[in-house]
Specification:
This protein is mostly helical and 406 residues long. 69% of the residues lie in helices and 6% in strands. The protein has 14 helices and five strands. Helix 6 (193-212) packs antiparallel against helix 7 and helix 6 (193-212) packs parallel to helix 8 (232-238). The relative contact order is 0.06.
């Protein structure tokens, strides 16, 4: 544009007919330079646009491949876990159905020509003996409770009533002795068939939770706390899940923090211990130091992939429970679906935990209790990462440490 203005200023005062050959050639050269510059700029601009388009297309392809991989692989894994769930539920239902029809099966065995009469007789005698002592344990437990009630509700006022009190105390002792004898006899025979079925089913659930991990471990731990709803055999077996927490590799921990906080642990914190100090079904805790204050922090990091797979796992669990209730009469497992499914997604959002801890801290402060609730550091907290002050302490079951602490 500057060259064009210069040419116009130089030659604008003269008419075209007054130009000589040298002037015309000079003008053509200047115009050619101007055109070449314009073409070069447009070409460079096109190259830049094509490069940007190519980079955007490549990035889009990579993002699509990553999204497909993130969707496909968890779907395959969730399908495998669902298959394990269906197989386990089928075996549990089959165990209970066989137990329910044991008498019919025994009758069928007796009718077989190759059945051993001695074996059948021994099984029948053992079953009758077990049933007898189970009834005796129940009856003698009721008798002991009645004797204890009579002894504790009557107080002696004179010598006769004092003598009656001694007799009632003796009755309590005798009832307790008779109950102990019945329990010993039942123990010699072995656990009841029903208890064996419960233990087998609970063991199947335990193996399922350990194999599938993640949400299934959380469900198993939740069941282990429901001693008022499920048989004691389930409580005893599934309680081992409290000590079987999975561990996430440190490289996955770094990626979760990078995805949620925008940087790796070494970029965000002054220090970050690779080995977790604790692990649970949903997350594990690492010790870190604040970059500015140097304060010791506890960073709770959710197991990678749990958020993406939890919905599918919960859906599979609900479908399995619904199918069992529909197909088999007497299996009322719907409470498991109604109890666990609505709460699990809340537990997976650590923001809820942080807010609840602050609410609890407010209530404790109002009550004037000498109790510390760790402070939440919200700049380093998300739905999958929870950063709090590290407070020294010990487990509530560690009685020796409690005594030493006064």
């Amino acid at each position: 544009m500057a060259c064009l203005l210069w040419v116009t200023w130089i030659y604008g005062r003269h008419s075209l007919t007054s130009w000589n050959v040298r002037d015309l050639i000079l003008c053509m050269v200047v115009m050619t330079i101007i055109c070449c510059r314009k073409i070069y700029r447009k070409k460079s601009r096109c190259k830049n646009i094509m490069s940007l388009c190519g980079a955007a297309w490549t990035q889009q392809q990579q993002q699509q491949q990553q999204n497909w991989s993130n969707l496909f692989i968890p779907t395959i894994e969730a399908s495998g876990r669902a298959l394990n769930l269906i197989t386990t539920v089928f075996h549990i239902v089959l165990d209970y159905e066989l137990y329910k029809h044991e008498d019919e099966i025994a009758s069928l065995k007796r009718s077989l020509p190759f059945a051993s009469c001695n074996d059948i007789t021994n099984i029948d005698k053992e079953g009758e003996k077990r049933d007898y002592w189970e009834e005796q344990v129940m009856e003698r437990s009721e008798a002991l409770e009645q004797a204890q009630l009579e002894y504790t509700t009557k107080s002696p006022k004179n010598s006769n009533e004092g003598r009656n009190s001694k007799e009632m105390k003796k009755q309590v002792h005798n009832a307790a002795q008779r109950l102990h004898e019945a329990e010993e006899e039942l123990h010699k025979i072995g656990t009841s068939r029903k208890s064996q079925v419960h233990k087998t089913a609970a063991t199947r659930l335990l193996n399922l939770c350990r194999e599938n991990g993640g949400v299934y471990v959380k469900v198993g731990q939740h069941l282990a706390n429901m001693d008022l709803l499920i048989p004691k055999e389930y409580i005893q077996v599934l309680s081992t899940l409290f000590d079987d927490a999975p561990l996430t590799p440190y490289k996955d921990v770094r990626e979760v923090i990078k995805e949620d906080l925008g940087g790796y642990p070494e970029d965000i914190f002054a220090s970050f211990e690779e080995e977790p100090i604790a692990s649970a079904s949903l997350a594990q805790v690492h010790v870190a130091r604040d970059k500015i204050t140097g304060k010791k922090l506890a960073v709770k990091v959710q197991h990678r992939g749990l958020r993406e797979t939890s919905k599918g796992d919960v859906l599979a669990l609900c479908c399995a429970v619904t199918a069992v209730e529909t197909l088999f009469e007497g299996f009322t497992w719907g409470w498991m679906r109604d109890e666990i499914a609505p709460q699990l997604h809340k537990e997976l959002d650590f923001c809820n935990e942080g807010k609840n801890s602050e609410i609890a801290a407010g209530h404790i402060q109002k009550a004037g209790l000498n109790c510390i609730v760790p402070k939440v550091h919200w700049p380093f907290s998300t739905s999958r990462v929870l950063c709090m002050d590290f407070e020294e302490g010990f487990k509530a079951t560690d009685l020796e440490s409690i005594r030493k602490a006064g």
